[in-house]
Design a protein that fits this description.
- The structure is a single chain.
- By secondary structure, the protein is an alpha+beta fold.
- The chain is about 50% helix and about 20% strand.
- The strands form 6 sheets. A 5-stranded antiparallel sheet has the order 2-1-5-4-3, with helices on both faces.
- β24 and β25 form a beta hairpin.
């Protein structure tokens, strides 16, 4: 039993390999092998990715379902490998068992997935994650603004500020802390701040810090800094508050340090006095000592507060009074509360004149305020009225408003300022007013303007010299190049850097060196000289140049070299020579030309015609000279000629056909190309036309057009006749066929053998006649009942034609393959008919074996090339054109049925679509039919 089971699983038994189902067609077998192997490879790679994700994400939910997915995909891949194996080895029991395993895993995975769906739906959606991310971004922006304000406050604070993590690592100290501790900010970071604490105080400070950290209480302590910079030991009062994290643990500390050295000195003196007093009043009660101690602590605390407030007040007043920039603060409605000395000095108002009486609008230009209101309205999308609100719109949103403004003094004079407006907040975060700090930037603006103008002028001058069309260079007394612009160097075939230090003789033709030397000596006397000479390029070629040498002197007027301005005149020199040579050639060409040349002036009068033009109209050249253009045409052409002449005056060149009148009154058709010549102002000086005589061609076109119209009418009549004739023949033929079939049914076998044979001839002939008439009717309808072209899917057309031929395909067991087909502009019904006729030919004209037909399409230039290849009987190449002629057959009806119209219909359909159709074949080796359809943009 077990042996039979293993034999069925592992051995082929009596089954045939799966490849026989594909008839061992190499392309089809290869297609399935490649497809199954790629699918199996993809299936095996997906579980690897899933296992990698499961191992990397230990917190991944639904881990078991990932293992099930991996097993399911792995088993699917194995089934595809078995599909490849069974092409040669028919182990179908083993293949079926693997599919059963795959089905079991798939079903189990599907059932295991159902209870997980509600849990998966609870997960946060991408939209919710996006909203959370947007909220976090907003909080980050607000926190950055808060950090910036905090940074400003800490740096300006009169007390030292210290920020550390829960491991006592310093993250930040302000400048005041460094001044008190006597170490730099960089030295204080990390554990470096610990070195600033006096060695005698470190242990007690650490113990107290550790104690309050355990209980999560604020840290308060007095200790000494030993000042590593060698300064005096400082006593400080430190307070630290821990920041509690989400897990309830302290994650960092913010500490303030106040210098209490002077107070400590006083307290030391007090301590000594107290010890003396305590010795004298030792007999006092413990209760008095406690009361006295409390009183001292209270006094000390109030002293510290008073000192701190005094320091802050003094610091604020010092900042306000010593600042060189205007500081103006207001309450929430804009009334000025603070007006510092710099503001009084710069604006000319006293503090008493403005404080509590006016808003900052008194010192601003109303026009600037209105413009700023428009800008803010556009930025915010909300109408902002001109007034105090334009200064505080951004500060109310927590954003400092920094802009350049123009302040107006009391005397009406103006000056520019850089104004920064911020909001002032109380302890609860409410806005209590606004602060504006203005910096006079008059000097900076003027200096920047002058600097920019000077830089622009220098850049313009440098660019002008470097990009000048003329070559410009500077040579020293010894004749070596010191400075060269691009035009000069490139004219000589060098880069500017290559010519620095080069002697001028290298760039001059040897025969012209002596001439330029004499010109140089003349320049020393007159200060300037111009000369034409030949130059030598780097590659050894010569060119003509016009050189202007100008003496150069230093500040003391002493000669120190000369400037050389060079212009390449090679083209001019060559042009002068070429013009002289071409003048004679031009006149000969114009006079001997077969085409007419006609030149008129701005008044349309003839100024020149060549012999061909005069001969074309039957005049002499002298007869046409000076006459207006209108003299050589009839009245109907004059209006068109006037319109054409107006376009020439506008500078428009054109080519068109025109009819003239010859001297003997005959009409002559011409094709003329007219080009106007304009002056600098755009006015036409003259117009030249090249004129061809196309009278014979016009007559040929007229005859061709008439012939085409006659041919169209004849074709239309023939199509109508074929349609009517074939349609009208249907009725009598149907009667003949019906009676012949009735005669065959009723008298078959009752007459002699010859009568039965004749009846069969009648039935067969009428049937073929009816098929012939139907095909002829279909052929005639191709041109008369075709639909408008529209986008048609060739894949759908092939599929429909296969559906129409399914009976023939089934009977012959034909194998038809098709590549991906394009969408074309076509009549979809006729496209189906085209494929159907070609496929039917491939099925019909086959050898004894199974018909194999392949359909393909490819793009070539501006058209699609379709091909239908079969393995049929083939065609002798000498008949490749004959098979597309209507009713033309290469085989008798007894060998292959048909009327001989199918390929003629294919040709007519393809030609209606603007394409071509042909066949490539060898007799006995099958045939490939090709046809094209143009690519038309929709």
């Amino acid at each position: 039993m077990l042996w039979n089971l293993l034999n069925n699983w592992l051995f082929i038994g009596n089954y045939i390999p799966h490849g026989h189902c594909y008839l061992w067609q190499r392309e089809l077998v290869a297609l399935h092998i490649v497809s199954d192997l790629i699918i199996a490879l993809a299936y095996y790679s997906i579980p690897v990715s899933l296992i990698y994700v499961v191992f990397k994400r230990k917190d991944l939910p639904f881990r078991n379902i990932f293992w099930l997915f991996g097993a399911f995909i792995l088993s699917c891949g194995t089934t595809h490998l078995m599909e490849v194996w069974t092409l040669w080895h028919p182990v179908y029991w083993l293949s079926g068992s693997l599919k059963l395993i795959t089905a079991t895993i798939s079903a189990y995975t599907a059932f295991a997935l159902i209870p997980l769906i509600p849990e998966a739906l609870v997960f946060t959606s991408p939209a919710q994650l996006g909203m959370i991310n947007q909220i976090l971004q907003t909080e980050i922006a607000e926190r950055r603004e808060s950090d910036a304000r905090y940074q400003t406050l800490t740096e300006a604070s009169p007390v030292g500020i210290f920020y550390a993590d829960n491991s006592k690592n310093c993250l930040y100290v302000n400048e005041r802390w460094c001044q008190i501790a006597g170490i730099t900010c960089d030295e204080a970071l990390g554990k470096g701040w610990l070195r600033g604490i006096h060695p005698d105080d470190r242990e007690s400070v650490f113990a107290q810090w550790y104690s309050v950290a355990q209980e999560q209480l604020p840290f308060k302590s007095e200790y000494r800094f030993q000042r590593l910079d060698g300064g005096q030991v400082r006593w400080v009062f430190a307070q630290a508050v821990g920041q509690i994290g989400e897990n309830g643990e302290v994650k960092s500390y913010v500490c303030t340090v106040t210098d209490i050295t002077e107070r400590k000195l006083v307290e030391e003196e007090n301590r000594l006095l107290n010890e003396t007093l305590e010795n004298r009043i030792a007999e006092r009660t413990v209760q008095m000592e406690i009361s006295n101690q409390k009183l001292q602590n209270e006094v000390a605390y109030r002293q510290r507060i008073a000192i701190t407030l005094l320091e802050l007040t003094q610091l604020q007043n010092a900042i306000l009074d010593s600042a060189t920039y205007t500081i103006i603060s207001t309450d929430t409605d804009g009334t000025i509360k603070t007006f510092n000395r710099a503001a009084q000095k710069l604006l000319g108002y006293s503090s008493e004149e403005v404080v509590g009486k006016f808003t900052p609008e008194i010192i601003h230009d109303p026009l600037e305020i209105s413009k700023r209101a428009e800008v803010l309205s556009q930025e915010l999308g909300v109408k902002i009225e001109p007034g105090f609100d334009i200064f505080i719109t951004w500060p109310r949103r927590g954003i400092a408003d920094e802009n350049e403004w123009t302040y107006i003094r009391k005397d009406g004079s103006r000056f520019p300022v850089q104004l920064s407006v911020t909001a002032l907040f109380d302890n609860e975060g409410n806005i209590t007013g606004f602060l504006g700090v203005g910096q006079d930037i008059s000097d900076a603006v003027a200096a920047a303007t002058q600097r920019k103008q000077a830089e622009k002028e220098l850049r313009d001058l440098t660019n002008a010299l470097q990009n000048a069309v003329e070559g410009i260079s500077l040579l020293d007394i010894e004749g070596h190049y010191v400075k060269i612009n691009r035009a000069y160097a490139r004219t000589c075939g060098y880069e500017p850097e290559e010519m620095l230090g080069m002697a001028w003789q290298i760039t001059v033709h040897p025969d012209d060196v002596e001439m330029l030397t004499l010109a140089y000596q003349e320049m020393l006397i007159s200060g300037k000289v111009e000369v034409e000479a030949r130059g030598v390029r780097k590659n050894g070629s010569f060119f003509y140049k016009q050189v202007t040498m100008v003496a150069a002197c230093d500040e003391g007027g002493i000669f120190n070299g000369h400037h050389c301005f060079m212009k390449d005149i090679t083209d001019r020199k060559l042009t002068e020579t070429a013009l002289q040579e071409s003048e004679f050639k031009y006149r000969q060409i114009v006079e001997l030309a077969e085409e007419g040349i006609w030149v008129i002036d701005s008044n349309a009068r003839t100024t020149y015609v060549n012999r061909a033009m005069a001969r074309m109209l039957g005049y002499s050249e002298l007869e046409m000279f000076g006459r207006p253009l209108w003299d050589f045409m009839d009245e109907p052409e004059k209006q068109q000629a006037l319109e054409n002449f107006e376009r020439r005056k506008q500078g428009i060149a054109e080519q068109h056909e025109f009819k003239f009148k010859t001297k003997d009154g005959k009409d002559i058709w011409t094709y003329m190309s007219a080009s106007p010549l304009l002056d600098d102002r755009g006015n036409m000086l003259s117009c030249c036309a090249l004129i061809y005589n196309i009278t014979d061609r016009k007559e040929s076109e007229r005859q061709m057009l008439q012939l085409t119209e006659d041919l169209k009418r004849s074709n239309k009549e023939l199509e109508q006749f074929a349609y009517v004739a074939s349609h009208d023949l249907q009725e009598p033929l149907r009667a003949v066929t019906s009676y012949a079939q009735l005669l065959a049914q009723r008298y078959q076998g009752n007459l002699d053998a010859k009568a039965d044979k004749y009846i069969n001839y009648i039935v067969d002939g009428s049937t073929r006649m009816q098929q012939l008439i139907n095909d002829l009717l279909a052929y005639s309808r191709l041109g008369t009942r075709g639909k408008e072209f529209e986008p048609a899917d060739s894949n759908a057309a092939v599929k429909q034609s296969l559906c129409n031929l399914q009976i023939a395909i089934a009977e012959t067991k034909a194998v038809i393959t098709c590549e991906s087909m394009p969408t074309v502009m076509a009549d979809e019904f006729q496209l189906v008919q085209l494929f159907q006729n070609l496929l039917a030919n491939g099925i019909k004209f086959c050898r004894e074996d199974i018909p194999l037909i392949h359909i393909a399409a490819g793009r070539q230039d501006s058209e699609w090339v379709f091909s239908v290849r079969d393995n049929g009987i083939g065609i002798d190449p000498q008949y490749a054109d004959r098979i597309f002629i209507i009713f033309c057959r290469l085989h008798g009806r007894r060998e292959y049925s048909g009327t001989g119209i199918g390929l003629a219909m294919c040709k007519r359909i393809v030609e209606r679509h603007g394409g071509r159709i042909w066949v490539e074949s060898q007799e006995g080796k099958g045939a490939t039919f090709y046809f094209t359809i143009p690519i038309i943009s929709t």
